[in-house]
Description:
single chain, mainly beta, 1 helix
Amino acid sequence: MQVVFDWKKMNVLKAQDKEGNWFVLNGECSRCGACCVWENCNHLTYENINDKKVSKCKIQTIKPWHCAIYPKDPSAKLFDSCTFKWEKVNG
C-alpha cells in the first residue's frame, strides 16, 4: 500500500489499495476515539459535550505516526463510530 501524507496537517491525503486504486479520505472527526491504537492510551481523555461522551487526544497536534495515519488502509473496515469514509479517485 502507498500513502501520501501531509506532514504539516499530520493526516493522510490519499492512499492506494492492493489493486492499485487510489482513495481520498473524506469526513471530519467525530471525536469517537477510534484512531487511538492503544487500548489504554494515557494521552486519550474523555469529556461530556451536550450529554455525549467524546474523546480528546492530549497530543493531537504532535501525535505519533501510527496514530496520525488512521485510517490508513482503504480496504480496512473503519469503526462504526468513525465518520471518515474512503472515496475512490483517479490517481
